[in-house]
Design goal:
By secondary structure, this protein is α+β, with helices and mostly antiparallel strands. Helices cover 16% and strands 30% of the residues. It contains eight helices and 31 strands. Strands 1-7-6-5-4 form a five-stranded mixed sheet, with no helix packed on it. A four-stranded antiparallel sheet has the order 3-2-29-28. Strands 8-9-10-11 form a four-stranded antiparallel sheet, with no helix packed on it. A hairpin with a 3-residue loop joins strand 4 and strand 5. Helix 5 runs parallel beside helix 8. The chain is globular and about 70 Å long. The N and C termini lie far apart (60 Å). 58% of the residues are buried.
């Protein structure tokens, strides 16, 4: 057991772990996409610390307050504070811009792209390689000294990081394949390792770790999942585990911006602000009024990454099938509501909506609207009672919370938080282990049915911009100095987010006319190739322009937009063939992806799905 009293560095830099021979491959080189903005603020049950789209100012000088479960020293303040810290504690963590909490460990990301870990290491979740059972203070992972990290996520006992180049690196427990290194790899991945199956194939924009699975989004607006599938959280239409990342084919034509992961469920956020969910939904955490029937083979569960079987497993699979939604479905209750953030808790989900009333005419006007659904036994929905909600219901916002815009939302296993742009923080839900940070007696702090303000300024000694990172049964609040409304930032550069789309055919025409000189044409070719190779990016680029009243009229407008853009790009051939070459190559790529969908649908019951390239924000439909 490690008993050091202060943060330490490993004695010498360590290279990333070598890939297992079972997953070694030599992928073809792909042209890099231009760097874009920061990843969106979408969080998971265990880690609520994605690099924010609008980062707080002066994060290199932020104060970090921690509270909640500390049974394995995961708060980074040692064991002196006890197993449960009920009041915020100021820790020495200069330069930290986000914190991710697992069941018994945590990972800390700095503005320089460094990663520190602390807490339990029985499955290698601290990434040190050594057989150290527990770390009492954060230790730097030298494996990232040459690969700065843009975003990280933490699962129950595994972790994942997206580098600034868009590579995915994972470590920790992989008993269900959640680290994504394939069959035959160690159950515990004790050193950070690049996921070779994705290397050179896709550019990862953000990652979200669930309990024992991992979901990620790429710059092509595609979603991949890997790990435990027993509760349908992988979205592949079955309950089988996956040891290698697999593309969620039902979302192939959906313009996904980011994905959030709960303990056993997922929610995707689309470019136009809609929500699509899948996974375990027994408590209503998917936001679906009803779960669709699940068609499974009579023998029950398919073999997992580590093997399973037997009559008991088949019976358990049948029971789970009644509670699971293994294929993505649009959250119909939020149709017409433009969302800007999603946070998944243990068995509940929070949604942050745009606009004065979030698009719901029946709801009270507010600068922004927070809605919640799912399990509510500890009041984690913030609706004033403990009854579950199968569809999203508005959180009971205090009058004082309406005075400033909402900066973001976060959720842990049984607690929820939001913060305002003026620096105020609100918490609600279960607080038995101190995860609410309300320094009152244990009985009063055990449960808060509605949001309560958490005073952070008196403890941090400063006011300013805040960022809350909540996961499992722990919470961290980052308070940056200065004006809370400021926009200057020292946050790390994020990887390219999945917005390499075109705004419209008009933009394509303007870019095509203005592309003078080979560098400009090369840049246009990379962007056009990426968009036209992805059904999802085609939808994100051109389906939004349709404004006709009828479905036929809308389809006609979409087709006209697509044709207009394609013609404009082809006309650049008189100056250079590079754009035309990219378009030709993209046709082969998009056909290969659609062929993958068709092959999968042939093996499915019922009949194959009807595919549409220009069909926005809905998973693949099935024909009767």
């Amino acid at each position: 057991m490690d008993t050091q009293d202060e943060p330490t560095r490993a004695p010498s830099p360590e290279p990333l772990a070598e890939p297992n021979a079972h997953t070694e491959r030599a992928p073809p080189e792909l042209p890099p996409l231009p760097p874009l903005a920061h990843p969106p603020r979408v969080q998971t049950v265990y880690e609520r610390a994605a690099t924010p789209r609008r980062p707080p100012p002066s994060l290199s000088e932020a104060s970090v307050l921690v509270f909640g479960a500390n049974d394995c020293a995961q708060l980074g303040c040692g064991r002196e504070m006890g197993d449960a810290v009920s009041a915020p504690v100021l820790v020495d963590a200069r330069g930290v811009c986000s914190v991710g909490f697992g069941a018994c460990h945590s990972a800390w990301l700095t503005v320089d792209g460094e990663v520190l870990t602390v807490g339990a290491n029985d499955h290698g979740q601290c990434g040190l390689g050594a057989q150290v059972e527990e770390l009492l203070t954060p230790r730097l992972l030298e494996a990232f000294s040459t690969k700065p990290v843009a975003q990280l996520s933490v699962g129950a006992s595994h972790s994942a990081a997206v580098t600034r180049e868009g590579e995915l690196i994972t470590w920790g427990e992989s008993s269900h394949g959640q680290c994504g290194h394939g069959e035959g790899t160690d159950v515990d991945v004790r050193k950070p390792r690049v996921v070779q199956a994705l290397r050179g194939q896709v550019v990862v924009s953000c990652v979200a770790c669930g309990g024992e699975f991992t979901a990620l989004c790429t710059t092509a607006a595609e979603v991949f999942t890997v790990g435990m599938g027993r509760f349908g959280a992988l979205g592949h239409g079955d309950l089988a585990d996956r040891a290698l990342p697999a593309r969620v084919l039902d979302l192939l034509a959906v313009p996904v911006l980011a994905v959030a992961a709960g303990e056993r469920h997922c929610v995707a956020l689309t470019h136009n602000g809609e929500a699509i969910s899948w996974g375990w939904g027994v408590h209503g955490q998917l936001g679906l009024a009803e779960l669709a029937p699940v068609a499974l083979a009579p023998t029950g569960e398919a073999p997992s990454a580590r093997g399973s079987g037997g009559g008991k497993a088949a019976r358990q699979t049948a029971e789970r099938a009644l509670e699971a939604q293994p294929t993505p479905r649009v959250v119909i209750a939020l149709k017409g509501t433009k969302l800007r953030a999603v946070a998944c808790g243990g068995a509940h989900t929070l949604f942050l909506a745009h606009g004065a009333d979030g698009g719901h005419a029946d709801m009270d006007a507010a600068p922004a609207l927070v809605l919640a659904c799912g399990k509510n036994d500890a009041g984690q929905l913030g609706v004033g009672d403990t009854a579950e909600r199968r569809t999203p219901a508005p959180v009971a916002m205090p009058a004082g919370a309406r005075a400033a815009p909402i900066g973001g939302i976060a959720a842990g296993s049984e607690h929820s938080t939001l913060w305002l742009t003026d620096g105020r923080v609100y918490v609600w839900g279960g607080g038995r282990l101190g995860e609410l940070g309300l320094f009152v007696n244990a009985a009063e702090a055990a449960c808060a049915l509605e949001p309560r303000e958490l005073p952070v300024a008196p403890i941090s000694g400063r006011t300013g911009h805040v960022l809350v990172c909540a996961g499992a049964r722990s919470t961290a609040v980052l308070v940056a100095p200065g004006d809370a409304t400021g926009t200057t930032s020292s946050a790390p550069r994020g990887v390219a987010e999945p917005t390499a789309r075109f705004e419209s055919a008009v933009e394509v025409e303007a870019l095509a006319r203005g592309a003078v000189g080979q560098p400009a044409l090369d840049a246009l070719a990379r962007r056009a190739g990426a968009v036209f190779a992805s059904p999802a990016l085609l939808n994100a680029s051109f389906a939004r322009a349709a404004g006709a009243a009828s479905a036929a009229g809308a389809e006609s407008e979409r087709s006209a937009e697509l044709e207009r853009a394609y013609v404009a790009l082809i006309q650049t051939h008189s100056r250079s063939s590079v754009v035309l070459h990219a378009l030709r190559q993209s046709v082969g790529e998009v056909l290969a992806r659609l062929e993958e969908v068709v092959e999968r649908e042939r093996a499915r019951t019922p009949a194959p799905a009807a595919l549409s390239l220009i069909h926005i924000s809905e998973p693949t439909r099935r024909t009767p």
